[in-house]
Amino acid sequence: MTNSLSGQLRTAVDRFLPVVRALPDERLTDPTPCSEYDVRRLLDHVFQVVVQFQLLAAKKDADFSAEPEAVTERADWRDAFAAETSALVEAWAAPGAEEGTTGGMGLPASVVGHMVLGDLVVHAWDLARATGQDHTPDPAVVDDLLVVFGELAPTGRKMGAFGEEHPLPGGGAGASAWERLLALTGRDPAWARPE
Fold it and tell me: How far apart are CA 137 and CA 124, in angstroms?
């Protein structure tokens, strides 16, 4: 795997799409580890993020104020995810995408790119957990996100992007990097779908 952001995004997409493709339509109303989203609303949210972060890669303004598209109402919604995530990878692979600043907050472009990377990685787990699937993220991507999200977490919590850090057993001693990342974003790594 390449260490470029676009390479990491491609790795994340390659692990995200199988979860989306295997997701049964009858599970769209199931709860997820994101308490404010069921599966359908989480898919809508991720789709909006994937589309808007293509604009951010091109140093254009993104708009998250609109209600996310109800993407699962499309007959081809899984194919739509494949097309837009591929476009996302291409957008961040464009020359200069990782350089300078982007977005309304004037953040470094590489940090903004890691935000969408984190969304793909963490929400793939959310969707997999919600629908009884397995999901294993790439360890190198997780290690990179732990560093970036460790710096972003306080601001992310103020903005409502992250929940409060979830306490890990034993203060996190013995927790894997992945469990620490999930906890950092406010998730319980042991979350299980209610039966």
Answer: 9
